[in-house]
Automatic annotation (TrEMBL):
<feature type="compositionally biased region" description="Pro residues">
    <location>
        <begin position="227"/>
        <end position="243"/>
    </location>
</feature>
<feature type="compositionally biased region" description="Basic and acidic residues">
    <location>
        <begin position="145"/>
        <end position="155"/>
    </location>
</feature>
<feature type="compositionally biased region" description="Basic and acidic residues">
    <location>
        <begin position="193"/>
        <end position="224"/>
    </location>
</feature>
<feature type="region of interest" description="Disordered">
    <location>
        <begin position="117"/>
        <end position="243"/>
    </location>
</feature>
<feature type="compositionally biased region" description="Low complexity">
    <location>
        <begin position="183"/>
        <end position="192"/>
    </location>
</feature>
<protein>
    <recommendedName>
        <fullName>Lipoprotein</fullName>
    </recommendedName>
</protein>
<feature type="signal peptide">
    <location>
        <begin position="1"/>
        <end position="16"/>
    </location>
</feature>
<keyword id="KW-0732">Signal</keyword>
<feature type="compositionally biased region" description="Basic and acidic residues">
    <location>
        <begin position="117"/>
        <end position="133"/>
    </location>
</feature>
<feature type="compositionally biased region" description="Low complexity">
    <location>
        <begin position="156"/>
        <end position="176"/>
    </location>
</feature>
Length: 243
């Protein structure tokens, strides 16, 4: 309603000044690394792309909010708001498309993983069936297995008397070995006192010999050494006669 107070020329000048003021802030550029992905995307790559898209969306939203706040200080508020939103809308839409492309890549990866699991299960089933066929082809018929079992039972029954005799012989040998060991142990126990007595006697005799030797050495030390005998003078030589 305020435009009615001004002439058309003044209104045009005011609108031009308002647009110039609104466009003084440079438009943020979209990073070149963000591109829609149609192929499957790995989890770490998808997380990085989501973070980049969200960071760029936050930056654009903050810049748009700043410019919209400046519009409320202008003369024509609505026109300024529309101009700002028109400038930022394509960039925000592009980010939305990129977000959608990343999610599509994730869905494609999940689908490929599911198909891979299905294929792996199918191959495992085929391997199991092949092993089952091989076991069935190499398995012995039931009648043959029963015949082999009957033959082994008959062999064991035929060998039972001999096995019993060998078992009895082994038990007798073990009993004799045990009785001999008991007798040897009793004999060693009976001979133990005599061996101990002989050992004590040998120790006592050795001790007595050491004590006697010590007494003799002490007696030799206590004896007074004998005085030496006087020397006997030599007889005089006979005189020599001179003729």
């Amino acid at each position: 309603m305020r435009l009615a107070r001004f002439s058309p020329g003044l209104a045009a000048v005011a609108l031009a000044a308002m647009l110039a003021a609104c466009s003084h802030t440079p438009l943020p550029e979209i990073p070149e690394g963000l591109r829609p992905r149609a192929e499957p995307i790995e989890p770490d790559v998808a997380a990085r792309l989501f973070a980049e898209v969200q960071a760029e969306r936050d930056r654009l939203t903050a810049a748009q909010a700043t410019e919209e706040a400046q519009c409320y200080q202008r003369f024509v508020v609505n026109a300024c708001l529309l101009e700002v939103r028109d400038r930022y809308r394509p960039q925000l839409n592009a980010l939305n498309h990129r977000d959608t492309a990343v999610r599509a890549g994730e869905r494609q990866r999940h689908e490929l993983e599911r198909l891979a699991r299905v294929e792996e299960q199918r191959q495992q089933n085929e391997r199991d069936e092949e092993r089952a066929r091989q076991r069935a082809a190499t398995a012995v018929p039931t009648e043959q297995r029963q015949a082999d079992l009957d033959r082994r039972n008959a062999d064991r029954a035929a060998a039972a008397p001999g096995n019993a005799a060998r078992a009895q012989a082994n038990r007798s040998s073990a009993q004799q070995s045990h009785e001999k060991a008991v007798a040897d142990q009793a004999q060693r126990a009976a001979a133990a006192p005599d061996e101990r007595r002989q050992y004590d006697e040998r120790v006592k005799a050795a001790q007595e010999r050491r004590e006697a030797q010590a007494r003799r050495e002490q007696e030799n030390k206590d004896k007074v050494p004998a005085q030496p005998l006087p020397e006997t003078p030599a007889p005089p030589s006979p005189p020599v006669q001179v003729r």
